[in-house]
């Protein structure tokens, strides 16, 4: 069949079971994001079940569907990492052989010295921290001195928090651009993140002004391949940030998962040929890292309800793929991502129902499949499954 529009929706952190090398990344063999949230009374995803979510190899939670409407499987992460940037780059066709640097003991003094010299401003903290707790603990000192709050997490990130009354958003973004230039070589974190906040102690609040400044992908992704072929590329949510805007022709910002899905649904009524790439970050940011099982389950339920509207709006030459970029089991100890398989669900009028795609060797199979669908030129270690699912 001819495909006109491909929608790739990434449920950020929606893992479906521990990878064989999970222990190498500090995770137990029992991490399983889906299995954890299914136990919540808030969880109900009939549309995902209908597509074949619970028919995926290794998924023992939920009830298998006798006749899944979609193709279904799971994908292993070939890259050395379990973070957002690495996962999305691999989905888009690039495997990262070396893990991006993390700083579990905090940033080294020489990096902080270079950073302060580049910013012309003192900094505070420098350690791994919860984003809400760090502004509670350092917010007053920041307001008193003007020093920026610089911290990290389990991910490959350098985050800069500042009160909007002290540092306007655009000024904070400028500091982050300078920090992005400083973070190179052994300090080349995946993302530098602006974290503006407002309010008074102890009720500081992070605003919607977060902005990520990512490393440029080291090679062409499926986004580049679509653009080089003269096709449309739309990024909803964090996609533009994750790829440093490269290959994204149109960026659609979003305010939470529900709004992100509404934005994706709106594009179904538009005329275009190409790719719409969607990231729904709330699963990870609001619920996975905070180990909020019921919140995660409720977010999955809301997404599933919106999936009904999305599927109803699909046209004859549309294909939908649903996947994830890593796990973040809210039932696991700590607050880090978890090294897991991710689901791959494919659906559309031109997609065979009930095809078991098994266990794929890399997330990059998504990019390889997209390239075959649209006859694109893309070098990727992924293997296309288009011939397996196309009617």
List keywords for this structure.
alpha/beta, eight-stranded mixed beta sheet, globular
Protein described:
- It contains 13 helices and 14 strands.
- It is an alpha/beta fold and 391 residues long.
- It has an eight-stranded mixed beta sheet with strand order 10-9-11-1-12-13-2-14, sandwiched between helices.
- Helix 10 packs antiparallel against helix 11.
- The protein is globular and about 65 Å long.
Short description:
The protein is α/β, with parallel strands linked by helices. The chain has helices at residues 33-38, 46-51, 84-91, 109-119, 131-145, 169-182, 222-228, 239-242, 257-267, 282-288, 293-313, 365-374, 386-389; strands at residues 5-11, 71-75, 123-128, 148-152, 157-163, 191-198, 205-206, 211-214, 232-236, 250-252, 274-280, 318-323, 342-347, 356-360.
Measured between the Cα atoms of the first and last residue, the distance is 7 Å
What structural category do the secondary elements indicate?
Answer: alpha/beta
Helical content stands at: 25-40%
Q: Secondary-structure element sequence?
A: EHHEHHEHEEHEEEHEHEHEHHEEEHH
Number of strand segments: 14
Could you tell me the strand content as a percent range? 15-25%
Major sheet: size, sense and barrel closure? Answer: 8 strands, mixed
Mean pLDDT over the full residue set: 97
Topology of this structure?
Layout: E1 5-11, H1 33-38, H2 46-51, E2 71-75, H3 84-91, H4 109-119, E3 123-128, H5 131-145, E4 148-152, E5 157-163, H6 169-182, E6 191-198, E7 205-206, E8 211-214, H7 222-228, E9 232-236, H8 239-242, E10 250-252, H9 257-267, E11 274-280, H10 282-288, H11 293-313, E12 318-323, E13 342-347, E14 356-360, H12 365-374, H13 386-389
Parallel strand pairs: 1-11, 1-12, 2-14, 3-4, 5-6, 9-10, 9-11
Antiparallel strand pairs: 2-13, 4-5, 6-7, 6-8, 12-13
């Amino acid at each position: 069949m001819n495909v006109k529009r491909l929608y790739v929706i990434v449920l950020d952190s929606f893992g479906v079971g521990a990878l064989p090398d999970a222990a190498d990344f500090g995770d137990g063999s029992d991490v399983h994001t889906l299995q954890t949230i299914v136990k919540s009374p808030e969880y109900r995803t009939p549309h995902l079940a209908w597509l074949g979510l619970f028919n995926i190899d290794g998924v023992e939670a939920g009830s298998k569907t006798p006749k899944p409407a979609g193709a279904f499987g799971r994908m292993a992460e070939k890259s050395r990492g379990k973070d957002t940037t690495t996962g999305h780059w691999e989905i888009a066709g690039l495997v990262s052989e070396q893990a991006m640097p993390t700083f579990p003991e905090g940033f080294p003094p020489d990096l902080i010295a270079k950073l302060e010299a580049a910013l012309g401003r003192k900094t505070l903290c420098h350690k791994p921290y919860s984003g809400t707790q760090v502004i509670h603990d350092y917010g007053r000192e920041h307001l008193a001195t003007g020093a920026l709050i610089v911290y990290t997490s389990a991910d490959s990130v350098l985050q800069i928090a500042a009160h909007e009354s002290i540092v306007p958003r655009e000024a904070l973004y400028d500091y982050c651009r300078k920090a992005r230039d400083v973070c190179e070589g052994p300090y080349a974190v995946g993302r530098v993140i602006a974290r503006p906040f407002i309010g008074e102690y102890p009720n500081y609040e992070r605003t919607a002004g977060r902005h990520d400044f990512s490393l440029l992908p080291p090679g062409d992704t499926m986004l580049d391949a679509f653009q080089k072929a003269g096709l449309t590329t739309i990024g909803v949510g964090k996609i533009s940030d994750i790829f440093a805007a490269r290959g994204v022709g149109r960026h659609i910002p979003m305010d939470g998962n529900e709004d992100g899905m509404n934005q994706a649904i709106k594009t179904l009524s538009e005329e275009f040929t190409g790719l719409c790439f969607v990231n729904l970050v709330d699963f990870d940011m609001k619920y996975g890292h905070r180990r909020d099982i019921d919140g995660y389950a409720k977010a999955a339920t809301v997404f599933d309800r919106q999936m009904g509207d999305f599927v109803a709006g699909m046209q004859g030459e549309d294909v939908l793929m649903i996947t994830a970029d890593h796990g973040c089991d809210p039932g696991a100890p700590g607050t880090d991502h978890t090294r897991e398989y991710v689901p791959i669900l494919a659906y559309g009028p031109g997609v065979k129902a009930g095809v078991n795609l098994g266990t794929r060797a890399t997330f990059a199979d998504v990019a390889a499949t997209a390239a075959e669908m649209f006859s694109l030129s893309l070098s990727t270690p992924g293997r296309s499954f288009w011939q397996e699912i196309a009617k």
